[in-house]
Amino acid sequence: MKIVTRRSRAKSDGKSNILCLTIDRLNPDCLGAYGATWLDSPGFNSLAAESIVFDSYYATSLELNELYRAFWFGESPATERREKRSSLFAALKAQGYRNFVVSDVEAIALYQDVDGDELEDRLLFDASDADAPATSIEETAFFRQFAELARFLSKLDDDTKRGDAEPWCVWAHLSGWNERWDFPCDQRRLFQEDEDDPAPYADVAPPYWRREPTAAAKAKRRGARVESTTTHENANVVRSSERARLDALDEADRRQSVVEAYAAGVNVFDETLAGFLELLKERKILDKTMLVLSGARGCPLGAPSALGVPGENDEPSPFYSEETRIPLAIRLPDMTCATMRLPALCEPRDVYETIRSWSEFAPALKSEEFWRLENVEISPFAGVWSGDKQTEDESPKSTDDESTSRRVAPPQDEPGANLLELLADETGSVREAVFVVARDAKSQERALVNQDWFFKRTPTPNDSELSEPTEKLELFKLPDDRYCVNDVADRCQDEVERLNAAL
Fold this sequence. Notes:
The protein is of the alpha/beta class. The protein has helices spanning 42-49, 64-73, 88-94, 106-109, 141-161, 185-189, 215-226, 240-248, 251-282, 321-324, 348-356, 358-361, 368-371, 402-408, 493-502; strands at residues 17-23, 52-57, 98-103, 121-124, 168-174, 208-210, 229-231, 237-239, 289-295, 306-308, 328-331, 341-346, 434-437, 446-449, 453-460, 470-477. The relative contact order is 0.16.
């Protein structure tokens, strides 16, 4: 990783640093802090014990470019961009921060919508492909990237200790399970339950198989097995022998094989995260830094539709909660409200606003008046998109009244909210629904999530040019059905009509 840091002329004014770690395809159901009992994650659990953890945090797009519109510009991917907005880094620079973007994904490190003068530097990790699984954790991409990031942060800390540097904001995006599965084979075998179990998935390129393949997908796969290799979207190579082996397994064995390999990645990530955080504590960097650890997109592990991540030539599977629900932990410098869990619905736009307003808001956390607040401002959409049964008087009506029309309009254009305001009232909320789009604003595959429902609308292809377009509507009850397995749309028609109207 090449590091080019410009010397700042101004001195720090006592503001806390900001470190954002975004890990792609991190599934919260594989983390102990989110309830996993079959997989240990002491590193993340320790961070969660020092942080504020959010249980209902959802990605709003499955396309990284669109997702970072929310992270860095506070925009919803469900809406078309009308004009370029000021970025998060522009706001932080105006507050005296030096900004850095670090990633092994070129599209993120060189994100074109962020002006170059808003960043002190863009740093690109070595993203060379691996031909085979690593033989040790130290050889994995996770370990090498965390080590590079630790060295860079140490250098920034040395600048700060000399008293000649401004506070910094570092946003590090790691491709995680989306780019390469180079986790050691001995780590993968740790999760085999029985000697007779099928061997864990052993390839480096991420797997992707639909749970119930269509006839077209089966034909496509038969063609792929004839070829010697299949190209993955990230220039990795999927061995046809590994694909053929998994295709030959039944559904349960296929899922177990992939889950074992994914769990090995969790072990590698967790161990490297623990070492990384320990170093930051030894250097006392965390004492003066707000740390935000966020997922980017979830990784489907077979419940209910797919395994792994999609390749460029693979038929995409409809997304569900497992691919959109992601972890979020915010550790404040003095560990304010450590171990607190918040159920409020939130999304990447809220992370944008939380970081943007951190320096201005931090003094409020030390104010007695803040902790005396009885209520956090509730969204104007409260009660409209929730699953609570509405009375006739509460139902939205067609009228010219401005306040009523605002309540009826879908809340895609709501600005992000500072999640730290929820500390004054942990039962409060910042939004009543999260909208998710498959790729971008033009995509017709969408979902709406609230505290009660995961509602999904998927276009179905026409059999002929003369037929009318159709849509598949699905409804899943949350939190009882967090994996979106039992579709209850046919039994809750009123909810389906109301939620579909919002989409």
